[in-house]
Amino acid sequence: xxxxSLSAQDVKVLRWTPQAALFTAISGLVIAALAFxxxxxRPEIIxxxxxxxxxxxLASMWNxxxxxxxxxxxxxxxxxxxxxxxxxRLSNAGVNVYVAVVLAAFVVGLLSIPIGQFMLKLRGGxxxxxxxxxxxxxxxxxxxxxxxxxxxxxSLIAMNSFSPAVRRADNYWMxxxxxxxxxxxxxxxxRGRIGASLQAVRDDETxxxxxxxNVFRTKHVLFFLSAIGCAAGGAxxxxxxxxxxxxxxxxxxWTAFMLFMTIVGGLGTxxxxxxxxxxxxxxETYFGATGVAYLIGLGVLAIGxxxxxxxxxxxxxxxxxxxxxxxxxxxxxxxxxxxxxxALSQQSE
Length: 349
Hints:
Blueprint: E1 12-14, H1 18-34, H2 37-40, H3 43-68, H4 77-92, H5 97-119, H6 124-143, E2 154-155, H7 164-191, H8 193-203, H9 205-210, H10 215-241, E3 243-244, H11 246-249, H12 253-265, H13 271-287, H14 292-308, H15 312-321, E4 330-333, H16 336-339, E5 345-348
Antiparallel strand pairs: 1-4, 2-3, 4-5
């Protein structure tokens, strides 16, 4: 059996493939078109798209934490609830409600720094359960605030100063902006040194530390970003629904939804949570009114994917076709003439 030798000059290291460049260009055009949504779409479509943007944001933030950092949290509703609560408090203090949405996300992000000091010392199941316990604790603390009136909750009264059409359009633009900005931040984060460190930490913390990776600081960066994203999702959800009830915003169901979208779409891939969020959005649109049957169906589907397609939809596509639409990792391209009739391409991250 003959072997073909390859020199380093024969192999090209690529980050952008033609498919990735085309997909990025199309995505930019779609986002630009979506920016005109409130001027084009009917009110009910604007509301539904706002919901979809929030779902994509939440799923991507949970995937960033679990898929890239190996930090599986079942308590991300803590930051979602805190984001909504911070919006209530800031709005009551006289801050413009849409400025308050942005501030609420960053206030919760800053709060996640001291929280991370002790939560990120936990590993595996301890971290997952610890986050859930933290969420329940924060839920109870919020309910003793007289402003919230216990589980009865309160309303985002400042939204009454906006007409329904203006409110709907502003919510849409805010959700779109948060989704795009935070996905871009995550994209550039994963392409840089922190991205490589994150994957090293996810695969083996001890080995990562032995080669000089600051494991704790690397986790902290991801924890901070995920907290901002989930808090923004909570604040945006409150801006759209107006009513704040602690039990609803601190419900574990939010994390279950994030987990479903990520598992179905593809854990540890950039594209997967977006696909999962779209599938979840469609399922909710057509079957959400069926109540318990809808939730049972989601559970069965998630279990089916976890057992039959553990890499999710996009993970399976990547494995089958070596297709990567978001250029986060690197591609090694070998010359066609040296390796046979078919060009070979390998991917490395």
